[in-house]
Amino acid sequence: MLDCLDLAPPPPAVRSPGRDSAAVVEHGQSLAMFVGAPSEMAGVEDVARRAGFAAVRVVDAASAEVMLSHRPADLIVLDGGQIDFGACRRLASLRVGSVLVVTGTDDEVDRVLALELGADDCVSPSCGDRELAARMRALARRAPRPADGSHVLRFLDFRLDLLKLDLRRLDGGRVPLSRSELELLHLFLSNTGRVLSPDDIRAACKGEQWLNSRNVAVRVSRLRRRLRAESGQDPIRTVHAQGYIFDTPVVPA
After folding, report:
1. CATH 1.10.10.10 fits 152-252, yes or no
2. What confidence tier does 142 reach under pLDDT thresholds 50, 70, 90?
3. Which CATH code for domain 31-142?
4. Parallel, antiparallel, or unpaired: how do β-strands 31-35 and 54-58 relate?
5. What pLDDT does 19 receive?
């Protein structure tokens, strides 16, 4: 699957204490988590390191869930030959990193199933190193997470737990938002001060509810109404002919 290409200077060394490996991540460096046996994922890990990622490896989905509860990853890479599709669904639902499935065959059915179950992208053994590295970097750019890695963010009179996707007022009261509204809020908080076009939002969010720009506008409007009703303020501003911007300060809680 993997042809040898010099994609980028190698990142810092990865230390491997005990059963799983732990990465030393430099400031600004993307973190990739690999889920599966090392013998099967070694070539893919090598591509990621050459593409500038720090790499951490865990042997199964349960270990990945535990580690992700403490620290999000920019990219979660699953070995489709070892990890069942139920694990793919669970890890994708955490929304703490983009999920890439590497299948063991060129069977289209496996790729389609992985995508239907929540994977952000899926590649087959015929994928070359350059394409694989480009896909990894693109997925990491779209991963909705704060730059400092904090799991709980504060804005206006709210706290959002990124791991649980749970929004609460500062007094502890829960703000009832739909799953799609929480994903949209997560995306805005991860891109404060940046204009997000409808296409940007559709690319980052999954599901039929994001199929067109009209659907995006409806969901942005609903989120704005809910936040305004709870706080009396609207942190989202419409930028004519461009999209939307979240221009309210966001800090770790």
Report:
1. yes
2. confident
3. 3.40.50.2300
4. parallel
5. 36
